[in-house]
From TrEMBL:
Stretch list, region Disordered: 51-84
Family: Belongs to the sulfatase-modifying factor family.
Organism from which the protein derives: Dicentrarchus labrax
Top-level lineage group: Eukaryota
Protein name: Formylglycine-generating enzyme
Pathway(s) where this gene product acts: Protein modification; sulfatase oxidation
Main location: endoplasmic reticulum
GO molecular function: formylglycine-generating oxidase activity; identical protein binding; metal ion binding
Gene from which this protein is expressed: sumf1
Keyword field: Calcium, Copper, Disulfide bond, Endoplasmic reticulum, Glycoprotein, Metal-binding, Oxidoreductase, Signal
The keyword Iron belongs to this UniProt entry's keyword annotation: no
Enzyme class, spelled out: oxidoreductase
Length: 369
């Protein structure tokens, strides 16, 4: 049967334990997608029963198995030599900025209203956490990600091999390009027959929110708040769409790893990449930060809400509780026609135990690490 989730999505075809990545490049851009179209759907893939067996679409209202999380267990901190693997950080000098926008590309996402936010200074990784860095963390701590515990994760159909694709009997109804793939994990980002050997410098994928928190905690860092992330994204520019300004491709140049072509069927790879790119492949913003939009979505520490006070806030941390966590920046799958979320004010959400082939993170800290 079809079940609607959140605002736009239905999911069918699933096993009892399926990841749910909710909110990602999710809903469509109102000015581009055809009437009735949905987003890329990565925002609505949920582990809590969002998919059902294809052959049984009219059945089952049973709640899916609850995932028991063990991801926030205390881990030993990294030693100095292990931390050499970690990202370079840059000081983001505190100040005030206008968060959100009064001209939202996707109003339903709570991009507005624009409000004044004051932030203290902090340090931020200049890049998304890479496979190599995550591998270092795992080799030291023995950490097992939630996707590995579940045994599956969501993979974009376009990057699966034919043999793996042919074995899959489930999909997300309104976003059938998202497939729950057994054996997909950070070590096997395109499915069980893939590996990270040739992409150690790419962003780690298939990490849940708790996995990201575990990594940052081990590195004596933390996830950024949404406000910190957005302030950093803007790179000192005021009220611009992108980290570099208002034009997507100034002078014909690409400034982020996004999708060119017709989503989801044809990716021309005009920017040089049809999947993730090595971190720092595109120009840094004014703060020296790379890939703030595009490449991989990035988890933040905030719970999701679409309601924001216009009162001035100092170091806001979002709602005290919620169902989904905020993610920012869009991914290599984002195209204006389906996922106009590669803007600094754009946002989306996922349940914390979600993971997928376009979702990663970076860390921040109060002190230099
Ligand atoms: Ca691309
Ligand atoms: Ca990114």
């Amino acid at each position: 049967m079809l079940r609607s989730f959140a605002l736009f999505f239905f999911v069918f075809g699933c096993v009892s334990k399926v990841l749910c990545v909710q909110g990602s490049c999710g809903t469509r851009s109102e000015d581009a997608a055809p009437q009735g179209a949905v987003g890329c759907g990565c925002g609505q893939l949920r582990r809590d029963g969002a998919v059902e067996p294809v052959e049984d679409r009219t059945a089952s209202e049973e709640p899916a198995d609850k995932y028991s999380r063990g991801a926030n267990e205390r881990l030993p901190e990294g030693r100095a030599d292990e931390k050499e693997m970690q990202s370079q950080m840059v000081l983001i000098t505190g100040g005030e900025f206008l968060m959100g926008t009064d001209d939202p590309g996707i109003p339903a996402d709570g991009e507005g209203p624009q409000r004044l936010v004051l932030l203290d200074s902090f340090y931020m990784d200049i890049q998304e956490v890479t496979n190599q860095q995550f591998q270092s963390f795992v080799s030291v701590t023995g950490y097992v990600t939630e996707a590995e515990k579940f045994g599956d994760s969501f993979v974009f159909e376009g990057i699966l091999s034919e043999s793996v694709k042919n074995q899959i009997t489930q999909a997300v109804a309104a976003a059938p390009w998202w497939l729950p793939v057994k054996g997909a994990s950070w070590k096997h980002p395109d499915g069980p027959d893939s590996n990270i050997t040739d992409r150690l410098d790419h962003p780690v994928l298939h990490v849940s929110w708790a996995d990201a928190v575990a990594y940052c905690s081990w590195a004596n860092k933390r996830l950024p708040t949404e406000a910190e992330w957005e302030y950093a994204c803007r790179g000192g520019l005021k009220d611009r769409l992108y980290p570099w300004g208002n034009k997507l491709n100034p002078k014909g140049q690409h400034y982020a790893n996004l999708w060119q072509g017709d989503f989801p069927n044809h990716n021309s790879g005009e920017d040089g990449y049809i999947k993730t790119s090595p971190v720092m492949s595109f120009p840094a913003n004014g703060f020296g930060l790379y890939d703030m939009v595009g490449n991989a979505w990035e988890w933040t520490s905030d719970w999701w809400t679409v309601h924001h006070s216009t009162d001035q806030q100092h170091n806001p941390t979002g709602p005290p509780s919620g169902i989904d966590k905020v993610k920012k920046g869009g991914s290599y799958m984002c195209h204006k026609s389906y996922c106009y979320r590669y803007r600094c004010a754009a946002r989306s959400q996922n349940t914390p135990d979600s993971s997928a082939s376009n979702l990663g993170f970076r860390c921040v800290s109060r002190e230099q690490r």
